[in-house]
Amino acid sequence: MTTSVASPARTTTRARRWSEIALLLIGALGLIGFVYPTLVLPDYLPRVDPSTLGHGITYAGSAIDRTWITQALISALVLILVTGLPINGPSGRGSLPGAVAQAIGGVAVTFWTLAGTAFANLFYFSGPDDYCTYASCWPYHEQTVADLVPGALTGIAMFLMTLLVNRLAWWIRTLVPIAVWVVRTWPQRATERVPERTGLLQPVPSCTG
Asked: Which of 49, 69, 89, 142 is positioned for an S-S bond with 54, CB 3.0–4.6 A?
């Protein structure tokens, strides 16, 4: 009677597989718990209400503070987790499960960016007598684009990095989406009380009341 003993290589491979599955599950849960409110929701942006009932109402937004920095760091960690584990170190390529998870995460971030922005804009026009103050509905469209850009570009970057799983080092695929989001979000988050400083309450010349 013989007893089979698992080789060290097979044991290491099995431990790595289960470790990656655990990290991907944590990352998936984090996409719901942290990435959605931090990457998607536009509550930090200064804005002007474009509706007639809300004419003259501005929202200053919120500046970069300790709470946002903490959420941003956790969200960055979540984006790293959904990339999976590298093969042969950070400079090696990524794994197939990590590529699939990153692609799904990119689609999720993009979808929630679109859905979150659309839902937030519903509150501008809540009644039958509420319509745009100006003919061009300024600044509704400009604010919508500002809301969409950070999250949408982050999701697209995640999906593109998935396609390059066998061409780019794991650490590049991991950091590019984070860098895209920070570069696009930081200036918007830092410009607290933009309406009061830049005169957004003044009607643009091409608009008529």
From this structure: 49
> How do the domains of the chain map onto residue ranges?
18-123+131-198
Q: What is the token pair recorded at 71?
A: 């959420």
d(CA 183, CA 150): 8
- DSSP class of residue 85? P
How do residues 171-206 score in pLDDT, each as one tens digit?
999 999 999 988 887 777 665 444 443 444 444 444
Residues 20-34: pLDDT tens digits?
A: 888 888 887 777 765
pTM for the model: 0.76
CB of 35 closer than 8 Å to CB of 78: yes
Helix, strand, coil: what percent of the chain each, to 5?
A: 60, 5, 35
Residue type, 18: W
